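About this split. The held-out portion is used to measure sequence recovery: a designer receives only the structure tokens and must propose an amino acid at every position. Recovery is the fraction of positions where the proposal matches the reference. Here is one held-out target exactly as it appears in the evaluation file.
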């Protein structure tokens, strides 16, 4: 594999839906209110939506790259690794070079957020700085979240609530009259977070034996493989269980044919999570998990 392809792989493109989907969800909430409750006076600002998406994607890539570098420094990637090839662990780049690559993407996220800062003011800093810090602290710092079983909480908060509600804020600002869009954003934010907790849990089930041998105490290590599979399945089912609440808060919610595609993809994913061996074959589920989340939000959009 060339160095360029190795760097591209380290960004984990199959997982970037974890940022694209919640930003899309935040924009669709504003779009739904714009078309179904025009009295609120909301409208989608596509320029701010693009800035939000670029900044969020850069932050996720930074987190992925920091994860690569820090796991390499901690020797958490061994010859038994079942996941995609790592830059630092494989020796393609030094851990220091990989850390610098992560800082580059942090800088790119900050630059993309400058228009947001101009239009929305200091709350953008209040949202952005913790996100930048957590991008590193997920695997770095004195108490790395992923090493202590808090990865799922991180995903639920930052790839769910913060991403969706933050996108809505970038669109409409803070106004007491906009309680309803934020209520919808809270519900859909939880659902998006849960959908991508599935992605994390699949990774952790796949890597459970290696993580246990290197002191990485993920939930999959703490719970054991059988319970971790059950947890991943619960994460997958919960967004559907809460669709009644979505229908209450999101104007224009409809049952449509896209739900059949989402449910079919979710059913296939459930079957694979319950039966697939915990090894490199699980890498095939990463794309399916992202596709399922895309179909879920597509169904919400129609």
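Reference sequence for scoring:
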């Amino acid at each position: 594999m060339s160095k360029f392809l190795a760097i591209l792989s380290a960004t984990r493109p199959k997982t970037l839906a974890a940022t694209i989907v919640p930003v899309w969800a935040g924009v669709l909430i504003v779009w739904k209110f714009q078309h179904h409750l025009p009295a609120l006076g909301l409208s989608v600002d596509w320029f701010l939506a693009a800035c939000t998406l670029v900044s969020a994607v850069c932050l996720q890539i930074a987190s992925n790259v920091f994860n690569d570098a820090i796991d390499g420094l901690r020797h958490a990637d061994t010859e038994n690794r079942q996941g995609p090839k790592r830059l630092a662990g494989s020796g393609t780049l030094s851990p220091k070079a990989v850390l610098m690559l992560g800082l580059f993407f942090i800088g790119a996220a900050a630059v993309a957020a400058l228009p947001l800062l101009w239009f929305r003011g200091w709350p953008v800093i209040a949202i952005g700085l913790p996100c930048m810090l957590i991008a590193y602290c997920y695997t770095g710092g004195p108490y790395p979240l992923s090493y202590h079983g808090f990865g799922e909480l991180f995903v639920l908060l930052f790839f769910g609530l913060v991403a969706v509600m933050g996108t809505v804020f970038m669109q409409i600002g803070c106004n007491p009259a906009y309680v309803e869009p934020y209520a919808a954003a809270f519900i859909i934010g939880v659902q998006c977070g849960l959908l991508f907790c599935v992605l994390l849990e699949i990774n952790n089930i796949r890597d459970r034996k290696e993580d246990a041998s290197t002191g990485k105490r993920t939930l999959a290590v703490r719970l054991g493989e059988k319970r971790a599979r059950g947890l991943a399945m619960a994460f997958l089912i919960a967004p559907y269980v809460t669709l009644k609440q979505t229908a209450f808060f999101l104007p224009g919610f409809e049952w449509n044919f896209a739900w059949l595609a989402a449910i079919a993809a979710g059913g296939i994913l459930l079957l694979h999570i319950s039966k697939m061996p915990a090894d490199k074959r699980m890498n095939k589920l990463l794309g399916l998990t992202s596709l399922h989340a895309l179909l879920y939000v597509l169904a919400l959009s129609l």
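Annotator remark: Residues 167 and 299 are 19 Å apart (CA to CA).
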